[in-house]
Amino acid sequence: MRKLIKLKHLYTYLSGSVKLGSLRNMDQLRGSLCINGLSDINTVSEAKEAQLVKKELLVELNPSFSVDKNYEKRWRDGQILNALQPHPNLEESTILHYHGANFFCEFLPPLGNLPSLEILEISWVLGVKKVGVEFLDLQEQTSSSSSFPKLKQLCFKDVQWEEWEGGAEHSEITIMPSLSSLTLWNNLKLKTLPDLLWKTPVSGNQ
């Protein structure tokens, strides 16, 4: 598959014969890229070998992990997702079965610094109990920047978190200024929404 450098669309399931490194030179990939079986990757370096940051024509990335409660795999899932590093032109992403864990703190990956992202869906994320400011990716933001600047649609399905912090302490940063739709489906444990989402229309059976 490494020789298909002009390939423009791809749906792949990772296995012993298909490695993420095969995507390294496919810089003409455009449209959407679906990757299943990410939990079967053995090393974070393999995720980096995909060189997604160079695929500026790719506008949709749909990574999917496996339904596995093995702690070692859950820890590696978080590192793998961060290592994928899509190009800033990414507009849409659906993340399935993500169970990343960082020591005793389980969290969503930092995605707020993707300036072109317009649609984000996260489903079947069973390990996360609390959504904090790390999701907004505020650590490297400046006073003149924003988190999720173009995000219009945000959807969470079948998740189990109970708390959602919205970054109120970062009042100098604009957070999700373009958000017009929030969908919560089977988020029965979530007690309240952060202040920044109070004016956003909410749908679902939350």
Question: Any overview of this molecule?
Answer:
Pfam families: LRR_R13L1-DRL21 (PF25019). The protein is built from two helices and twelve strands. It is mainly beta. The protein has one domain (10-204). The longest helix has 14 residues, at 71-84. Mean pLDDT is 76; it is low at 1-7 and 13-17.
Task: Give a quick set of tags describing it.
single chain, 206 residues, mainly beta, two-stranded parallel ribbon, 2 helices, 9% helix
Quick synopsis:
The protein has one domain (10-204).
Layout: helices, strands, pairs:
Blueprint: E1 10-13, E2 31-36, H1 44-48, E3 58-63, H2 71-84, E4 92-96, E5 119-123, E6 130-131, E7 146-147, E8 153-157, E9 163-164, E10 174-175, E11 181-185, E12 202-204
Parallel strand pairs: 1-2, 2-3, 3-4, 4-5, 5-8, 6-9, 7-10, 8-11, 11-12
Instruction: Tell how many strands the DSSP assignment holds.
Output: 12
Poorly predicted parts: 1-7, 13-17
Strand adjacency order, main sheet: 1-2-3-4-5-8-11-12
Q: Radius of gyration over alpha carbons?
A: 17 Å
User: Treating each run of at least 4 consecutive H or I residues as one helix, how many helices?
Assistant: 2
Distance N terminus to C terminus? 43 Å
Q: What spatial form do the alpha-carbon principal axes imply?
A: globular
Strand content: 15-25%
The tally of domains stands at: 1
Largest sheet: 8 strands, parallel
* Whole-number mean pLDDT: 76
Secondary-structure-derived class = mainly beta
Pfam family, one: LRR_R13L1-DRL21
Domain R13L1/DRL21-like LRR repeat region: 20-103
